[in-house]
Each structure stands twice: as C-alpha cells, then as structure tokens.
Queue: 2 jobs
Job 1
Amino acid sequence: MSQDHEKSAPADGNFRDEETGEPRADFVAAVEEAIAEGDSGHVKELVSPLHEADVGALIELLDHEERPRLVELMGDEFDFAALTEIGETTREEILEELPVATLAEAMRELESDDAVAILETLEPEEQAQVLEALPAQERIVLRRSLEAAEGTAGRLMQTTLIAVPPFWSAGEVLDFFRATEPDELPDNFFEVFVVDPAYRLLGTVFLDALVRAHPKTRVEEIMQADRRRVQFDEDTEEVARLFERYNLVSVPVVDEAERLVGVITIDDVVDVIQEAASEEIKALGGVSPDEELTDSFWWIVKSRFLWLLINLGTAFISASVLKTFESQLQQMVALAVLAPIVASQGGNSATQTMTVTVRALATRELSRSNALRIIMRELATGAFNGAAFGLLTGLVAANWFQTFGLGPVMALAMFTNLAAGALGGILVPMLLERWKVDPAVASGSFVTTVTDVVGYGSFLTIATLWFRLG
Amino acid sequence: MSQDHEKSAPADGNFRDEETGEPRADFVAAVEEAIAEGDSGHVKELVSPLHEADVGALIELLDHEERPRLVELMGDEFDFAALTEIGETTREEILEELPVATLAEAMRELESDDAVAILETLEPEEQAQVLEALPAQERIVLRRSLEAAEGTAGRLMQTTLIAVPPFWSAGEVLDFFRATEPDELPDNFFEVFVVDPAYRLLGTVFLDALVRAHPKTRVEEIMQADRRRVQFDEDTEEVARLFERYNLVSVPVVDEAERLVGVITIDDVVDVIQEAASEEIKALGGVSPDEELTDSFWWIVKSRFLWLLINLGTAFISASVLKTFESQLQQMVALAVLAPIVASQGGNSATQTMTVTVRALATRELSRSNALRIIMRELATGAFNGAAFGLLTGLVAANWFQTFGLGPVMALAMFTNLAAGALGGILVPMLLERWKVDPAVASGSFVTTVTDVVGYGSFLTIATLWFRLG
C-alpha cells in the first residue's frame, strides 16, 4: 500500500504534469484516497509542499464532500490563502463547514486583502462572529475594507504598508527596515509611502530609488510627489484600466481627505482584468457572468434557462414576421428555404460589428472623439459586404431554384439586412452603454432580433412585390 | 488666437477629461490645429507633458497624415515608447515615414523590450539598417531578442537587469547601486539576480529582502534558489498563465544552458493577458484577432468578408436541409414558420455551452481530470432545458396554429436539438483544441451548423412522420 502511494503520488510539487502544466490525475487520486482513509499525515505530506494556487486548483478538482474534509485533515498546515484562488460557490460551501475559531485564526495569518476576500463570502452573522474573535486593531482595518462597496478599490486594497515622515533620511528608512520584525512588514514590498502627520499622502519612494540614494538624503527629496493615486470608492475596473494604461506596479489608495488607507498591487489587478474579460466573454455568449465551471447542475440549469427564455421570445417575434407572409410562402416554397440565409448572414455580419463595438467600449478605445468615424466605417463595411454577398447569393439562388427573379430579390434583401445589421451592431451597444446597461450582456439578443426581423421582412416584402404574390 | 489656444488646450496633463477619463475632443482639436500650422513649439508645449500611453492614445485619434507629422514636429522631444502603445497598423504607417537615423537614435533611448516591439514592425531591410546604425553591444542584445520567435518569452523580455555573484554581501550590492550611473541600471527594478561565472541563474534576491538583511550577509544566504524561471522560447500566453497562477511580479528568462538572458515584468504580461482576451472575444464574434479599431475600411472589409463567406457556406448547408422537405413545407406552411425557432433555440443553447468550454480551455480550468464530469453536466443541462423548452414551445405552437399535433412534434424536436447542441457545444471546442486549432476561432460555425441541421432535420422528419406528409 505504501509503495503504491509512492508510485502514484511522487513527493513534493509534482501536482502538475511537467509537459502540459495540467493537474495530474494520479496525484488527485492519491489525495482523494488519503482523504477517504482519514490519513491526516499523508494528506499533509502531499498537499503542504504545494503553492497556495495549486492547493486551490486541487480543491476544485475534489468532490463536494471531500473539500471541507481536506481543510480539516490539513489542520494548522492549511493555507487559507488557497481559498482566495477558487470559485465563490466552492468557497462558500467550504466555509459553511468550518468553525468560527478556525476562521478567526486563519484571518490573523492572512494578508488583509486575502482576509477580506474570505470574510466577504461569509453570511453577515458569521462574519460578525469572526470579526468579534479578532484583536481590535485587525478588526478595525478589516471592517473598513468590508464597508467599502463590492468592486471598489477599498475591497481590493492591502492595508499592510510602510509609511514614513518626509524628513527621514534614506539611511534612517533602511535602518527602520532592519530593526522591524519581519511579520510587521508586508510580505513583499516595492515602495515606501511618505505621509504628513495627518497621514495625508505626500508621495512615494520606490525601493530602487531609496537604495541608490545617498544615506543622508531626505526622503522628500527623492519621493515622487505626483504619483497617481486612487480613491477608496473607485471602481476596480477603472483602477485596472489605470494600471494597464500607465504600466503601474502598485497604486496608493486614499480617502476623501487624501489620507493614505491602503495600497493596490498589480497581482490583484491581474485577477480583476482576467475576471472582467471572462465576464465579457460569458455575457456575449449568453451565460451569466457569475457562472463558474464548478457550479452545480441546478444552478446552471436555472441561470441558462432565464437567458434562453428571453431569446425564445425574440425567436417568436421573428417567427411572427414569417407568419405574416404565410400565403406567399405557400405560393412559393423557395422563399421559406432562402429566407433563413438572409437572416443568418445579417446576424453574423451584425455580430462582427457588435463584438468590435462592445470590446472597444470595454477598453475605452471608443469615445466621443472617434465614434462618428467608426459608425461611418462600419456602415460602409456593412453596405459593401451587403452588396458583395447580395450579388453572390442572388446568383446562387437564381440558379438553385432556376428562377431568375430570386436573384435581384435576394440581392436587395441581403444588402438591406447587412446595412441594417451594421447600424444595429454599433448603435445598440453604444445606446446601452449610455443608458448604463452592460452592452456585453444585452446587445446580442437585440441585434439578432433586428437582423431576423429585417432579414425576413425585407426578403418577403421584396419577393411579394417582384412576383406579385398577394 | 493665442487666447483661444489657452482656452481650448489647457497646459499640462489635461488630455483626459477628469470626470470620464476619456480623451478631450478640444485638446485633440488644438493639437490638430498646431500640426496644421506646422507650429513645432506649440505641438511640443501640448504633447510633451503627456505620459507615453496618452501620447499613444492621442496618435490613434489623429488622421493618418497627421501622425508622422506629429512625430516630426516633436523632434527630440518625441518619446518613441508611445509607439508601443498603439495598434500595429498605425505603428507601421508612422514608422514607414521616418528616416533610419531617427529610428536608430530612438532605439538607443528605449528600454530593450520597447525597442524590440518597434523593430519587429519594420520591414526586414529597414530593420537591418537600423541595427547596423547601433553600437555593437546594443545590436547584439536586440538581435538576440529579434531571433526569438514572435509570441515567445525572448521577444517580451527586458535585457537590462542587475546580476551579481553569490559571494557578494548585501552591503556590497547596495554600494554597487550607488556607484553605478543611473542610466546603466534599469528604469525601475525590484530584484537582483544571482549568477555563477558562466552566467547561470542561481537565484534572486528581492530588494526588500536585500534592505532588510544585515550588510555583511552574503547574497547566496538570502537568495531564493527555487525561483520560478521561464525558457527563452516559452510561449508568452504560457508565461502569462504562470504570472496569474502564482501572483508573480517578474520572472527571469533563461536559455537552454540555464544562463540568464533577460527578465519579464508583469506590466508587459498585463498587455499579453489583455491581448489574449481581446483575441478570444473577437474570434468568438467572427472577427479577425488582428483587427484593430483604427484599421482602414478596406482592411476590415476584406477580413470580415472571408469569415462571412465561410458562414454563408454553412447557411446554404442548412438551407439544403430545408429544401429536402420542400413538398412538406408546401403542404403545411406552419412548419416553415416554426422550424427557425427550433434551430435558433438550439443555436443559443449550444453557444452557451461552447462559450463556457472555450473559456475554460483558455484558462486551463478544463483538463482531463474534470472533462467527463463537465461533459455529463452540460449534456444533462441541455436535455433538461430541451425538455422544458420543448414543453413550452409545444404548447405555444399548438395553440398558435390551432393544430394539436404541432405540440408533440415541436417538443420532441426541441429536446433533440438542445441535447445535440450541448454535446456539440462541448465536444467541438475540445476536439479542435486537441487538433491544435484555436477553438475560439472555429467552434462557432461548426456548432451552429450542427444545431441548424439537427434543428431543421429533426423537426421536419418528426413532422413528416406524425402528419404522414409524403
């Protein structure tokens, strides 16, 4: 048995396959076996050497009931930072099972931003109990972050930081580092903040400037006074854009009185960026931005059902346009075969325009200064491709059904629908953005309804006129 | 006139509106006016105070012919790093207009990763000329980066770094910083690399550890020897995943012999992450990953046309399924009205599954360890929602056309199509990934063809049997 263990679960750090970087199924199986046996020693031996991110990935691969058991069996050796690396649903499930004392102990060991990420998942009552069990100083700091609205700088920031008065010398700052206990300093830091007696932010000094300076130089002489800062209640996606645009590595957070309250580092911002991109992709695909790969069957059924229901409504709107032309369809069944082609080509073309527009709005590339130029370009592209595909599909349709008239009818309808689609594809997201509705979530249904209705409507109306169907 | 200038273009840093963060149209107009007048002094006065990222944003808002003129009028004061912040098409346009001497001078002033980003945009011949005009040492370093394949760590890395031998003391390193000319050190740095005489990487010391250490401590005692490193030819998206997973701020780059050749910092990785997300979103929307908002009309027409052509092909495949049932459609025109509803609902449901799958493949959340579980869950979701929407649309259809039989026919077809769509939505991207085809680019067309063909085919076949249409 023990040999088996050794074979299936090589000692430390081999959670991921070296070639593919994917988690190894045999490692996961070995952990599952150790959990089933309640073998705390063996679980620790396997999991302790892993990086917190890999512990998170491992937890997501376990079955629901194995997850809290892993935390239990790991005991003191469990690094709660791993819980910040997993999906919210899974985190909730695990935290529900843990006693308040364990959670309070964990909060003390975590950096403040990780502690906040875990506390915000708890039910209000349990959150209050955990906070009560903490020393006053830590409680106050965590409470301030939790009072910040979700998705703001205050929630994302780290409160452990180094602040010094402007009259200190570079040498004094270095001496201060050496004299301070390591656990009173942040785990890793790149800069020192300079504050006045009221803790108002005067500027910052990066470590490299500090070590390059003469030891007698006062920090106010080498500090960057114009350093970008963000407000406590700033939206995190705004903060992320600032980091991206100006290639920042960290940014100080201040309150209304310009007092320094925390610092946001780029590793937290990377998560915000990745999260925002995931949400945009999911929204465009008609999936709830909250959905995660580990979510349960019922959660997913419910969330997808709602969106499909809305789309079913729009499908019936398009179908009712077809129904208006029932008699024409009966007189000339070729129309029923060809109409979906006009609608689908319009939908695809409009989706191209919509995708580009939604992305440009998200990255703030599309603004008032260039909106008109882009609208005109998209309209021209739609019209040009509409004419080209009109000609092409007109030729094919006329030949396929050996009916000359289907050529011009198809061509005209295709042109109309692609031009209308381009206009809808750019205007719908821009209007939604102006009305403060997320364009990624809502644009798709609107735009394809436009191209279905215009596609069916124009094709069948033009056909009715051309062939004098009544 | 000069008063007008002052009003329309407030002095420094006011390129962006304070409220919205968007570029100000009046500022852009003032720059355009100064360019039109060839007023070099005024152009400098407006543009010099801006951050390189904002200069980039400004350039993108100018007309094509104004862009190289801006660079000319700025003269020595133009910061070429701004050109790394703009789209590739625009960069090419501008670089084409500039003389080799200007480019060579610019390359000397840029950090190596920015210089490489600009050099790689040049035609091979011009690139060789610019390299020839550089001092040998800089030429060698830049050439090594350019020899790395596009999209690899070698292209992304920065070659200016600090490396010290293991026997140096912390104090000696700090003295070395103070004794070195600032322009010989990187602009900003957070760590010192420890190398052996053959320049093989032994470990790294973060600045905070260095300043905390006693001055007599040898760097080998405080270095992290197990620091993660990446190979010169590693894919940049792989590198980005490493940064994200382990919350890294920088990572050393080594060659096959484990020799230190450069360092990748997180600000460059943020661009890779954002770029990868943009490409995925565009690909899912049927837009070329290379398309940029500033691209010209003709470029866009051509790139979108190709993708629409492929989709037109699939639309004709679906239409030919409809054509097979021409006589049935003629006998019962309600079928022509309802068939698109079955196809569209299947398409939307399959797109949900496909979106989740493509995203999970991109983030490496979906692996062999959990694939089967996710496939079963998606299939169950498709079947469940298929049954629910089958019931719902069956009821509506039977009532709408006052024909009882349409109910069960619609219900059965809807169930079949949503189940097939779920299977297609997850299997198509997974197979494409295994065949090394980007699932974001190719899945959409495949999946909607499946749901169109299965939707039309199953609905009309079941209807033919139920109503004994022949």
Note: The two ends of chain B are 83 Å apart (CA to CA).
Job 2
Amino acid sequence: MDIRQYIQENEPRFLDELFSLIRIPSISALPEHKDDMLACAERWRQLLLEAGADEAMIMPSEGNPLVYAEKRVSPEAPTVLVYAHYDVMPAEPLELWNSKPFEPEIRDGRIWARGADDDKGQAMIQVKAFEYMVREGLLRHNVKFIFEGEEEIGSPSLNAFLKAHQELLKADVILVSDTSMLGADLPSLTTGLRGLAYWEIEVTGPNRDLHSGHFGGAVANPINTLCEMLAKIVDEDGRIAIPHFYDDVEDVPAAEREMIARIPFDEEKYKKAIGVKALKGEKGYSTLERNSCRPSFDVCGIWGGYTGEGSKTVLPSKAYAKVSSRLVPHQDHEKISRLFVDYIQSIVPEYVEVKVTPMHGGEGYVCPITLPAYQAAEKGFTKAFGQKPLAVRRGGSIPIISDFERILGIKTVLMGFGLESDAIHSPNENFSLDIFRKGIEAVVEFHKAFGA
Amino acid sequence: MDIRQYIQENEPRFLDELFSLIRIPSISALPEHKDDMLACAERWRQLLLEAGADEAMIMPSEGNPLVYAEKRVSPEAPTVLVYAHYDVMPAEPLELWNSKPFEPEIRDGRIWARGADDDKGQAMIQVKAFEYMVREGLLRHNVKFIFEGEEEIGSPSLNAFLKAHQELLKADVILVSDTSMLGADLPSLTTGLRGLAYWEIEVTGPNRDLHSGHFGGAVANPINTLCEMLAKIVDEDGRIAIPHFYDDVEDVPAAEREMIARIPFDEEKYKKAIGVKALKGEKGYSTLERNSCRPSFDVCGIWGGYTGEGSKTVLPSKAYAKVSSRLVPHQDHEKISRLFVDYIQSIVPEYVEVKVTPMHGGEGYVCPITLPAYQAAEKGFTKAFGQKPLAVRRGGSIPIISDFERILGIKTVLMGFGLESDAIHSPNENFSLDIFRKGIEAVVEFHKAFGA
C-alpha cells in the first residue's frame, strides 16, 4: 500500500495511540510524577511492540527508566538507532492554556497538548514510519529504538546508560526527530545545535529577613545585589562579559554566514509573531546568527522576597536565579561552567555570600552534509515536502547528541518536524496534523533511501 | 496598688488576653483572612471594654473595620488618643519559624509569635496601662482608642476614615506604641520616622514564554532586562539615581549628626547580629544615619520564569518586582512616586514594555522634643527604665503619623518598646516579657505626668 494511503486509513489509530501517551503527564522535572514516567515508558513499550519490534523492554537507569526496542532484519545489514524522549516540560503557567495541557484536543488542523510536538508527536512519526516499513516488508536494515525519560532535565542518567550498553546500542547512524524546520513551506534539516550550561545562583545577605525600614539603606539587599551581578554578565554590545568565554568559539565561516543570509527570513513578521517592538542581541550578527551560531545568556527564573499579593516591605535574606547559557560547537560546557562560577565569585561584593551550583550542560554538535544518512534524510524530506530541505544550524540544545558521538562514536541525523509556532516548552504547545503526516512519509522515504 | 505589684498579680491574665489576640491570624495582606480581621477587631472591642472603656465599638471603613473606644473623665480635661493596629504581616517563610507563628509560646523570657511585638504586644501595653489608671482612679484626662486593621498594607482606608470622623477623634495628642528602642538597656523615644513609597514593576518581553534555545541571543529576556533596570536605580556611591530624588531631602543638621554619633553603637556587633561581613550604604553617612535620616531603595520581592525544582530552560514572557523606597521628612511620597515612574519609563529599552504601579506611600514625620506630651513620655521612660531615654530618628515608616498631623492637626508621641532582636516582619518574631512589664509602667507614668 502507498504510504499516503496507509496514513489516511490508519490516522485515527495513530492519534488514539499518541493521545494515550499525551494523557500521561510525564514531567521529568517534578518528582511527584515518578509514577507517570513509568506508565509512559510502559505505554511506549507496548506501542513499539505493536508497531513491529521483535522485542521491547523497559531498562532501568540511575534515574527514570529507558525504553529499548529492536527489529533485526539481518546481521549484515546496517543499523539505524532511533532516539526520542518520552518526558515533557512542566505545563506552567496553566492559566495561559486554551485547553488542558494533558487532555489533547484537535482544533484548526492541529493537536493541542504538552508533548504534542516535543517529543511525543515527533517520536510517533518515527514509530509509525517504522510500522509501515515492517508491515509492507520494505525494511532492508535493522532498526533500534531508545526512548529516554530525562531529556528535559538534561539527561543526567543517559551517559552512564550509554557507557553500560555500548554493544546493545551499536548502530551506523542515530536518527532523532526532536528539532524544528524553518517553516511549514520551508523544510530544513538541522546540521548544528547549540550546547548548554545551566546554573542556580543563591545570594545570601542578612541571616534573616529584615525590616526594610529599620535596616534599609545600611544593609545590602540580596535581590538588589543579585540584579547588579546579573546585569554584569552581558555587556552593552550583547557580548557575554565572562573572561575567556569566547576563547573556543569559532567565528562563523564566511560561507556559512552567506548561506544563513540566503534563508528567507522576515524580521518584521518574526517580531510580530512574538509580540516585541525590537530585537536585541550581539552586535555584528544577524538575528538568525544570534539564535543559532552565537552563544546566549538567559535568566530562566528568578525569585526572592515577598512575591504574594499586596505590598509587604522586606529586606530579604536570600535571592535566587536559574541562569543558562547556550553554547556553540567547540565550547566545552564544563570549562564554561567553571569560567562562569569563577566570574560570579570574582564580582561578588563583600556584603553578600553567593553559591553557584552548576545544574547540567552539554556540548554543541555539527552533522556533515556528506554523511550518507544525511543524504537519505534529504531525499525523504524532498519527497514528502516537494522541495529540497535547507541545511541549517539551530539554536536549541540536545546535549546528548554530542554525547552519542563521544561515547558511542555514532553521528546523528536530526530529522525534526517542529515549527516555531508549535510553542514547545510554552503554554498551548501544538503540532500540525499535516506536518505529522508528511513527517511519517519523510521517514519512510529515509528508510527506503538508506536501505538502498 | 503600686503599678509593679499590679502587673505581677495580673500578668497571667494579661498574657491570656494577648495570646487570644495572637491566635487570630489577622493578616491584612491576604484576602482569605477577612474573617480573622473581624474576629480580631471584635476581640479588641471586648478587651477595651473590660479594661475600663465607657464604650467600645466596631466602626466600618472602606476596608477592614476599626475599633474605637473611649473613657471620658471630663469635657474640660485634655484628651489622649491611642492609636494601634490589629493586623499583622504574613508569616512566610513558615519553615524558618521555631514555633508556630500563631501559637504563642513563652521561651527564654520572651513571647514568640507573629504580632508578639508588632503590634498586638505593644498595643496591649497601652491597654493594660489604661486599665490600671482606670481601676486605681488615677486618670485625670480623657482617653480614646483607635485600632486599625490595615497598617501593614499601608492603611488604604484610614485617611477617608479620619476625614469622616474628625470630631470623634478630636484629641490633644496621639500616643502610639509601634516603634522600637535602641536597646533593652538603652531606652529611646522616636522623634522622626521615614516615609515610604512602594511600586510593583511588570516587564513584558515576548507575548509568551519562548524556548531559550530557539530564541535566546536574538530576543531580549525580560528578567535580564528587569535586573539591568533595577541595577540602575542605586549608583556606585549608594545614592539613588532618580533625577530630582534628593531635591527636597534636607541635609541632616550638624547638631543632629553629632547627637547620632553619640549613640552607643557597635558596628561589629550589628554586623554579627544580622550575619553579614560588610555593610553597604550611601557614601558619606554613618550606618545610623543611613538607616534613619537618609532615603533607601530596596527590592522587596522579585519573580519571573521557572522557579520550581530542577532546571527548566525558558526565555520567559514576563518578570516582576516589588520595590520600595524609604523617604525622609519633607520628601512628598506622591512626587517621589511620579519621579520613580518617570525614571523607569525613561530607561525602558525598546525591546520590552514596562508597567509601574504605585502601591502605597506615606510621608516622614518629626516630633518636637519640646512638646508637653513628649516630655511626659520622657518621664515615663525614665521611671520605668531608670534612665532618661535618648531622642532618636528611626528608619521605619508609619505613614499615617504624618496623616494624623495633616488631617487631624494632632502631633503624635511615639512610645515604642520594640527591640531590633524582636524580628518583626520576620520569622520568629518575639517580645521580651521584661520590656512588656516596663512598657506598661512607662505608659502609666506618662498618663500621670500628662494629667498633672
């Protein structure tokens, strides 16, 4: 049966299966969802078996378990390892959702739910393409699946798992659908990712909350101090002021900057879509360079003092921030992490104490466009979307992609089908049904081309 | 009966009565405590009647009701109006309390509870001194009481109440026990208070939370921006950078600076008590000047982005801060409020939108030491504490003290009995039983001297 017909006939079942996954709030950041993690892993195990895997199992790790499945065609054939993650981001702030985050709804040709795209929807594309290849007897290579449950918290247990199971996970290429395209009519393949470093900062001033009238003006306020320190991390030109931060950052090659400049990009439309009057970033670089090839620094969360209703006056004892930096290829996240800690400690004034805790991190990644699997992916996109995909670097981080290369020695092809409008990590995450269908077709064509 | 003997014989009852008030969590900042406000007001009404008032009543206002009571001795005699407040601050963070905030406990000669000092304990001093004067037939002047329930949220309904009841509240002097002394062995009377202005700042960047990987580096982060703006409010010399902020600030007169310099003050002990290695404040002023005669700026609360467990990466849509400035006499809080709003709007970068909401405010206050009621208070302290109290300016704000003067035309004498170690507004608020007893005696002696 033709793949398009197969999708048409089976779509209600595909969506039922996807919705059964979405309804499990597998939020890895919140310990109260431990049971949901297990339930979600188990549901994937069943679905992978039903899709045609010879075997599928739950494998323990130091943290949430992983789901492993495989379909062996021949010991001589090459092997594709499909990686995905079954955990999702927290759904807060809940009041901004138009429908419940864990009750998927279809409206305007889109699935609305946390995980609709990232990564349950995209993982389902892989599984349904695999199902078609198996049922139609078209598979010419072995396929393995490894789905983890800690991607959104930085995959703390994955490295140890990879090291412990190098033989099991042996493959010729890793296939991942967890990135996005330039647009619905502008298919693209991701050839570069940014790395990540993440820290929590705790500033302690006085040993207890003080009356701001009795002490204000004479005792340093840790929130004021935290703000002053955070304001010293990015300079006026949008450059990160940490000494040696840029030491390993390669200047973007002129050829690549030219290619980026050719990507159709409407800055006015981009600003309008996110509702800002002006953009801000590093001097000397374009928006597309700033959000993909250049490092960034963001305060992801801040809190301290009285944050309830009304107007309590207080000179608080403590203030906190969660901060992150997106890194580019060749920046070592552990080195950057140390540089950051050193920099913060070097600017701590004597009137507060500051603790900086590195939380997690990962390296950037580059995929060469000469890789046979990359070219198979390019063919898949071309057939499904009717045009050759652009090769682009993206600003997001999948720290484990570089870990795959480092630990398993395997390159990854990033066949991502998300759109910016999918609002992943935000309220009203959604995923286009049209893209879902085209995605399945693109992965089927990848398998055909890779097997040939 | 001698006042000391009276206190000794009646203390268990005094404490029972005080504890019955403390057990009512009359937190004005939290709307869910509306019923507690009414219960607390009613409890005071009963206690004022039992203490000897001719009548006591609950009077409605636009917000929480007030308790009014009076004892008329003679139409020709002067009148003392005792002001106090029955509301308390929120008790958060609860985990830092050694005993439950609304279950008073006596340990180490101190009462431990929210409101033990501010202002239930101090108000009880006034009521028990009044009770003694009435029962012993010593009262030679009229006494009125007005207890409000919104002091900790800036007394939003009091001005309208004062204007509506000028005749009822007519008096020669207002007596307030809601300030603190320099030390248990260093009695002092407060002759100056700082004013207050308070704002909430809302910074909006993108119209939704964004993925910090896909947008980070190209789109301004509202938390980073908020921190940068807050860092521009106090300059390197500890001066507030808002244009015209100091226009109406009087330089502290040389004579007063000399008096302040004579106040026994151990900076090392002060630092040790609050657990900081260094102090910070306006260049050119001493610590005691900085926290009493000079303005201050504090971020009382800040929040935005992901503040839960773990490490969510996000470029948030919004960031918030609650900020306040302590003002000195002659600074108009409404003018300062406008200057602040104008300044913030003048430094808002084009890539975010900022809303600044003035929350509440009040003027500073000065009490002349030549006032007869001040001198009666001085005598009261001298008898109770065995030494003449120092006249000092304090850094806290009771905005309504200047409103009393403006609206009712009455000066206030601030007979406060708190200690810095009482931890008002903080976890583990407490009040010394010894001070409680001496306070009652001091107020009794005030009444005797004032009536003479």
Note: Residues 195-249+295-362 of chain A form a domain with the Alpha-Beta Plaits fold (CATH 3.30.70.360).
